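Hello K.,

You asked for the raw outputs rather than the summary table, so here they are, unedited. I folded two proteins back to back in the same session to keep the settings identical. This is the first:
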Amino acid sequence: MNLTEMLLKNGFMILPIIICLAVSILLIVEKYIVLKKSKVNVASFTIKIRGILKRKEYAEAINYCTEEKSPVANILKRGLRKNKFGRKRMIETFEIASKLEIMKLEKGLPTLATLSKLTPLLGFLGTIISLTFAYFKLQDQQPNPDLTNFNNEIYGALISSALGIIVGIFSLIFYNQIVATVKKIVFEMEMVATEIIDVLDESIPSFADAEDDVNEFDEEETE
């Protein structure tokens, strides 16, 4: 019995594993496309946006962020639209925008993580089921068992486990790489957002106090 025949004979678990592999590949390709579009030269972007903000050209800064079309730029764009409401409001906007961007970046990762753990289990399950049937057949063939056929079925059962483990390792490796890339992008988002707030603090003396003015206005309205 060749490898193809053994795979076909144990197809009841081989097929789900192959489906898991196909889904994993699709998710990995999708995430790499998304992450490639999300990459930005942070140093160049920060220098450019700092220069614009120091000139107090907020509309130009927002337009520049719109053109960049990256998670970092999207967060800054939403935050800069709230700059007139003060430091606190802008930070809150940055936090909300960050969560939305992180959700986009992490989309599909839970599924990929699940597949990396599920496929080895499917392989083990296929092995157990195949071995069970093989021993039942061996028992039915007594007192003249066909050991050659029994050995072939054992090989096929072990292939199920091996394939499941291989697919699981494949999915896990790419999952960890993608998670590391997402963490790097998140760190860049936080770093740039903090730097932009510092720039506004330096260039607009009243920026940090703007939230106090808003709070005082709210208190007067309440009274």
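The second followed immediately with the same parameters:
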Amino acid sequence: MACNSCSTSDGGAPKGCKNNGTCGTDSCNKLTVFDWLSNMALPGGQEPFDCVEVRFKNGRKEFYRNTEKLTLSIGDIVATEASPGHDVGIVTLTGELVKVQMKKKGVNHEGEVPKIYRKASQKDIDIWSDARDKEEPMKVRAREMAIALKLEMKISDIEFQGDGSKATFYYTANDRVDFRQLIKDFAKEFSTRIEMKQVGFRQEAARLGGIGSCGRELCCSTWLTDFRSVNTSAARYQQLSLNPQKLAGQCGKLKCCLNYELDTYLDALKGFPEMETKLYTEKGDAVCQKIDIFKGLMWFAYTNNFAQWHVLKVDQVKEIVALNKEKTRIAAIEDYAVETVVEEEKNFQNAVGQDSLTRFDQPKKKKRPNNKKRPTAEVEKQKGAPERQNKIVPNGQNKPAPERQNKITPEGQGGQNKPASEGQNRNNKRRKPNRNKPSNDKNEPKQ
């Protein structure tokens, strides 16, 4: 589970533990134990427990002995014993609760336990951070090399030791893999000590984390540590459809949550007859089709009419089975059937076709009307335009008009259209009327 301060962002990056948004898959409060003894003092004369719990990448936790009597608290970064060199981790639990956790995980606190060297210095933290930055590109390159050697394996994660002297490769495989050549290539490519560790598919999902179909973080990556085997019978007892896509989790195996309510279902099924129970009647034999565990009902159908089901209570089924053992047949199971209330069919109105399919479409914009009207004959008279006369010309007198000749007029002599004085032809060139302004012919001066 992510810490509360991860939701507080500054410039797009969450604050939290400075992992920049990788809290769900980078051990931020992952499998954390609540220290409810933190505000309670020890009895007088009793020394605090000398072992602490240290967390590493992706929820890996180990126990170490504080031989140097360091003052440690939850969240301190420490340098721990490793082979070879040292590792760097974060303290997650101190005090008497560590003894409880060691007993829970089967670790003897009186035996040989690795020790803590010191609190990590800034140099140790820098080396640790640089090694963590190399893990992702190294994982991509390692997968390419495994594919080149045609090995049936999947490299899921890489974890560097705190001092950068060793890299542990976590992989999954269905069968045994001969990766001797792969280790040589890794050592030559990455120039570090290589350790290969095989994990199961459930452990892989627990290390990497993810979101389940329920919308929550995976149980195995937050609180579940006991990976029990899950069978398809668990789905049958709970009357679930055997759909592999719905029953499988992120790891590709059956979901661990199928076992959560299995014991409750098994206790409820103790009072039910078996699914293979047959009821012998004079009307015919009836077989069980389905059961409802919570309501205590069973559905039966005749072998010659599977379309019609009859509901019986568990006590009634047991009574019929007891009569059949005495070689007594009942008339029909309808006599024992539970009266089912038939719901009245609701009179729904068919609204198909009542509304237009284009009711949400935007209407087309109408064109603006053209207010410019052609001038009439009376208006042309007022403007001084000459009237057009339709003259009747006798046949044979329609001669083509002579073509106009563009005569070149010498400069300074002018032409036929040359005004007699300056500004004489200015009134002949009238401006076009304004379309936006209504025309008022009465107020217009006559020429």
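The first strand starts at residue 9 and ends at 10.

Happy to rerun anything if the numbers look odd on your end.

Regards,
P.
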